[in-house]
């Protein structure tokens, strides 16, 4: 029995990796990830220039997960691109997360990556909910289609999209119809559920400072929504477009459920932040135990095979 998997023809020890934004802001954090049991890693989403991000407190762990309004703090695209270029012969599979604060900056940043010697995967983040005044791109279907049309007029390297959660079957249908028009490597479902609110009842106060306390939700709160998005896009997208499942992963069972819904890889956010990189060994062991109990010998035995009730 094995939890090995293949992505873009590259064999990974397991389907697990960090979610962008968690444990991937600095070289030290990314090196710790690279030395961990994780099968792959992704960088913090980069803008062209360094960003300090939103004022603190901007991330809080709460009983059923987390709330964050980090505000896209990052060291700038060159920092993460240089990190990946320097290590791309040692690390099996690298994911470089990128966005821009404007349409033109997004195009500029992707042109920078295209012009580089970077051989890894680019994750285009269409779903950051926490930059004040900036809506989540992927909730604007026309803008998404316009951006992807321009990007794929020049971008030839492997490209995936980080999508926000959708909550309407019609939106799954509309978005999948757009995505199926492009040679995407994958879609990553889901980013945090944007603009939630967590209250400290004793203080009768919000818990994060930015945006009056509104922030992206992660953790147990969002697993049912994450699984639904993985399943919905797995059912609708061309098989050539893989699905990465993100959201609510804390145990090996959560990993199993994401793969059952159709995920090829599974990212860990809140629980990684709370437990540290040791979580990957625990998740692999728990996933192997579930596969053993069910008689599965590889991920393909159950990947995408969620049954419905007839
Ligand atoms: C890249 C910005 C994001 C952020 C952030 O930096 O605030 N938080 C999220 O939950 N998702 C994001 O995509």
Write the layout of secondary structure elements.
Elements: E1 5-7, E2 10-12, E3 16-18, H1 27-34, E4 41-42, E5 59-62, E6 65-68, H2 77-87, E7 94-98, H3 103-115, E8 121-125, H4 141-151, E9 159-163, H5 169-179, E10 186-189, E11 193-197, E12 199-200, E13 205-206, E14 214-219, H6 223-236, E15 242-246, H7 252-260, E16 265-268, H8 270-275, H9 279-294
Parallel strand pairs: 3-16, 4-7, 7-8, 8-9, 9-10, 10-15, 15-16
Antiparallel strand pairs: 1-2, 5-6, 6-14, 11-14, 12-13
The structure holds ligand ERO.
Ligand ERO is lined by residues 21, 45, 68-72, 125, 127-128, 130, 191-192, 216.
Overview features:
single chain, four-stranded antiparallel beta sheet, binds the ligand C=Cc1c(C(=O)O)[nH]c(=O)[nH]c1=O
- Count of helical regions: 9
Poorly predicted regions: none
Portion of residues within helices: 25-40%
CATH architecture: Alpha-Beta Barrel
Q: How confident is the prediction overall: mean pLDDT?
A: 97
The number of distinct β-strands equals 16
The CATH top-level class label: Alpha Beta
Keywords: Cytoplasm, Flavoprotein, FMN, Oxidoreductase, Pyrimidine biosynthesis
Domain Dihydroorotate dehydrogenase catalytic: 3-291
Catalytic activity: (S)-dihydroorotate + A = orotate + AH2; (S)-dihydroorotate + fumarate = orotate + succinate
Function: Catalyzes the conversion of dihydroorotate to orotate.
